[in-house]
Specification:
The chain is mostly helical and 103 residues long. It has four helices and no strands. The chain has helices at residues 9-25, 40-60, 66-74, 88-102.
Length: 103
């Protein structure tokens, strides 16, 4: 998989994930919420894996769902890492998989 020309961690991963989080956790609340793990800058700096897991658990519950468990395990090597320490193709692939799972 290749990422789009001009791809960047903040815009293509951080902002996308922040907007998904806002729609799930605070629907209808205008932009400008306090800085949390769901903020694009935090996601870019090291909460990428954590945010995806938290949102999946929030939406899908905490019971064993094999596909979500497998996805969570696939994040083990990037837990707490800055998006800049993750290959862009890998980060984009993980976000794409998350988007499928969260629906």
């Amino acid at each position: 998989m290749t990422v789009r020309k001009g791809w960047n961690a903040h815009g293509d991963i951080g902002m996308v994930l922040e907007n998904i989080a806002r729609n799930i956790l605070n629907p209808g609340v205008p932009y400008g919420a306090d800085y949390t793990i769901y903020d694009a800058s935090a996601i870019e700096s090291g909460t990428f894996a954590e945010v995806m897991i938290c949102l999946l658990r929030h939406e899908k519950g905490y019971e064993d769902i094999e596909e979500i468990e497998d996805f969570s395990k696939s994040l083990a090597d990037i837990w707490g890492k800055s998006l800049h320490d993750i290959e862009p193709e890998k980060a984009q692939k993980l976000l794409d998989k998350f988007v499928i799972l969260i629906k």
